[in-house]
Write a structure and sequence with these properties.
By secondary structure, the chain is mostly beta strands. The chain is 12% helix and 48% strand. The radius of gyration is 20 Å and the shape is globular. The chain starts with 8 loop residues before the first helix and ends with a strand.
Length: 285
């Protein structure tokens, strides 16, 4: 599906060089071109990597809140998905990725816990924002994640950790303020964020004069490894938190995922891999 090699001289030279490097390093498996993902233009891709390993992240930190959702969310869910619980549950996630194979960036996303067409639990993403063009392109092209560029910050002041989303700069969409106080018992987080955590998005390629269009429900995943301290405890802290939609926008209506009651708020440090699982559904044009 994701065969992005163009077989020109430059690409073949790149492949030959990679094979030689793998052989010199003692790699046992043969390095094949169809294991690579590449963005466009092929001669100077915005992103590239190994499909088998996925997109890798190291030394990250994040804030997340999980809550029950108030109001009607049917307009946010595509065909084939339905809320996993009654009342519906969802969450928001802010993260700083200090290193990744897409570069360093910040991210905000909203999720709705859903049941997919195979009866499995997953998190559908109606809103997601990043600060890096490679992350935006890879997310949209590979998984259908509806990423946009925005201003995102995570700051620490006094005993508090705070994250903000603005688009454009000065138009505050979300403020998430938290006071980390206690370590989180493993079972709570493992239930909310199973390993790997299943994610769902709709990937869309518009048709040209009625031809070539495609709309797909994509299942992908986040495989999160929480950091541990010298005593072997995972670096996940819970505490009181507030989430506000400061200035609602019809252009970026993140406020449509209306918060009823916050069930848990956490600050955490982690590594992660992202990968694409499969196409769950093809929508008819």
């Amino acid at each position: 599906m994701f065969r992005f090699w163009s077989r020109n001289g430059q690409d073949l030279a790149y492949l030959r060089t990679t094979r030689k490097l793998n052989k010199s390093l003692g790699h046992k498996r043969k390095y094949r071109g169809d294991q690579m993902i590449r963005g466009i233009p092929f001669h100077a891709p915005l992103y590239q990597g190994d499909m088998e390993r996925g997109i890798e992240y190291r030394n990250c930190e994040g804030l997340a809140a999980f809550f029950t959702i108030k109001g009607d969310i049917s307009g946010l869910l595509p065909e084939g998905l339905k809320p996993y619980s009654d009342p519906p549950q969802g969450g928001i996630w802010f993260a700083h990725y200090s290193f990744s194979t897409l570069g360093e960036y910040y991210e905000f996303l909203s999720v709705i816990q859903v049941e997919d067409p195979e009866g499995e639990m997953g998190y559908y993403i109606p809103f997601i924002y990043v600060t890096n063009d490679a992350a935006l392109a890879a997310g949209r092209e590979l998984a259908g994640a509806p990423k946009k560029l925005a201003k995102i910050e995570i700051t620490k002041e006094y005993e508090l950790v705070q994250a903000i989303l603005e688009r454009p700069t000065g138009k505050r969409l979300v403020t998430f303020t938290m006071m980390p106080t206690t370590r989180v018992a493993g079972g709570i987080i493992d239930a909310i964020l199973p390993k790997p955590t299943p994610l769902l998005s709709v990937r869309h390629l518009p048709p040209i004069k009625g031809k070539g269009g495609v709309t797909q429900l994509i299942k992908w995943y986040a495989d999160i490894d929480f950091h541990t301290d010298p005593r072997g405890e995972r670096v996940i802290f819970m505490g009181p938190a507030s989430v506000t939609y400061d200035s609602p926008s019809v252009i970026d209506p993140v406020h449509r995922l209306e918060i009823d009651q916050i069930l848990a708020a956490i600050y955490f440090q982690f590594d992660m891999k992202l990968g694409v699982t499969k196409i769950l559904k093809e929508y008819k044009e």
